[in-house]
């Protein structure tokens, strides 16, 4: 999800090509949390840019030279690599390192470590975001109240806390000249792997072979298609808070489908 700031290709003192994002008056820990997510994903074997420098108002990573675009082979490789990433598990849901502060785009979200996935996803994210949207007049209060009806059963069969990218829309995946996928701008946390699969379907940018290869490598629990809506609620509510407009309709549709 986009933020207001500047980006530019830069060069390190050692002569390495780099990419620098700047955001004056960035909220607390904004770039530090992105850097922590990139490092956690890298430690799990994901292909991500290396963090070179992080400060309160900027983040510098290695530069990724982008290639011509998606191919069937590239999509299949991404699916298998994402499945491998999702085999990395933790002890609790939420933050990768215990710090509860996180940002989905420019919207602050709560990743306080929890013992249950329902508390992490619903109690600390869906419900607070829905209430905030209603309080700001961006979402009908009756629609926002649907978040209260999201029971643990709506989230699918229990799975261990899984390391996810957390904001895996098409703009946060880069393809290099070799056709390899790089993951950028994460809201990485330990959650449910269907979070990434649902986000990939929200705004497009991924081919069908990516999903097929993923399922072949790491089958999903029965009924995952019905749970796409519940795992799209958070990013849609964030869009309601940041941009308003038609996103309220989409968020309402997702909440209704999630509790149907």
Describe what is shown at a glance.
Helices cover 38% and strands 16% of the residues. It has 260 residues and is of the alpha+beta class.
Write up this protein:
With 260 residues, this protein is α+β, with helices and mostly antiparallel strands. The chain has a single domain (6-259), classed as Aminoglycoside phosphotransferase (APH), C-terminal lobe (Aminoglycoside 3'-phosphotransferase, Chain: A, domain 2). The protein is 38% helix and 16% strand. The chain has 8 helices and 10 strands. The protein has helices spanning 30-43, 72-85, 117-135, 141-144, 194-202, 208-217, 228-243, 247-259, and strands at 6-11, 17-22, 51-55, 58-62, 101-104, 107-110, 162-164, 173-175, 181-183, 189-191. The strands form 4 sheets. A 4-stranded antiparallel β-sheet has the order 1-2-4-3, with helices on one face. Strand 8 (173-175) and strand 9 form a beta hairpin. Helix 5 crosses helix 7 and helix 7 (228-243) packs antiparallel against helix 8 (247-259). The longest helix has 19 residues, at 117-135. The chain is globular, with a radius of gyration of 18 Å. The two termini are 28 Å apart. The model has no long low-confidence stretch (mean pLDDT 96).
The assigned CATH architecture is: Alpha-Beta Complex
Uncertain parts:
none
Number of strands: 10
Give the class-level CATH name. Alpha Beta
| Count of alpha/pi helices | 8
This entry's quaternary arrangement is: single chain
Question: What does the radius of gyration come to?
Answer: 18 Å
Percentage of residues in DSSP E strands: 15-25%
Organism: Ornithinimicrobium tianjinense
InterPro entries: Fructo-/Ketosamine-3-kinase, Kinase-like_dom_sf
Protein name: Fructosamine kinase
Family: Belongs to the fructosamine kinase family.
């Amino acid at each position: 999800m986009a933020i207001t700031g500047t980006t530019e290709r830069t060069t390190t003192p050692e002569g390495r090509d780099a990419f620098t994002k700047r955001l004056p008056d960035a909220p607390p820990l904004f770039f530090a949390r992105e850097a922590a997510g990139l490092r956690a994903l890298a430690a799990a074997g994901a292909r991500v840019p290396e963090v070179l420098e992080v400060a309160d108002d900027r983040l510098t990573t290695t530069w990724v030279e982008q290639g011509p675009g998606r191919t069937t082979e590239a999509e299949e490789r991404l699916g298998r690599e994402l499945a491998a990433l999702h085999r990395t598990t933790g002890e609790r849901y939420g933050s990768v390192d215990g710090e509860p502060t996180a940002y989905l785009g420019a919207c602050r979200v709560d990743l306080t470590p929890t013992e249950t996935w329902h508390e992490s996803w619903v109690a600390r994210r869906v419900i607070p975001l829905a209430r905030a949207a209603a309080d700001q007049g961006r979402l009908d209060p009756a629609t926002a109240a649907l978040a209260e009806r999201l029971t643990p059963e709506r989230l699918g069969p229990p799975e261990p806390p899984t390391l996810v990218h957390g904001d895996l829309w098409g703009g946060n995946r880069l393809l290099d000249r070799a056709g390899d996928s790089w993951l950028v701008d994460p809201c990485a946390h330990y959650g449910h792997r269907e979070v990434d699969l649902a986000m990939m379907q929200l705004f497009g940018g991924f081919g069908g072979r990516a999903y097929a290869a993923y399922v072949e490598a790491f089958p999903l629990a029965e009924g995952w298609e019905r749970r796409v809506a519940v795992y799209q609620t958070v990013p849609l509510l964030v869009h309601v808070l940041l941009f308003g407009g038609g996103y309220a309709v989409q968020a309402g549709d997702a909440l209704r489908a999630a509790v149907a």
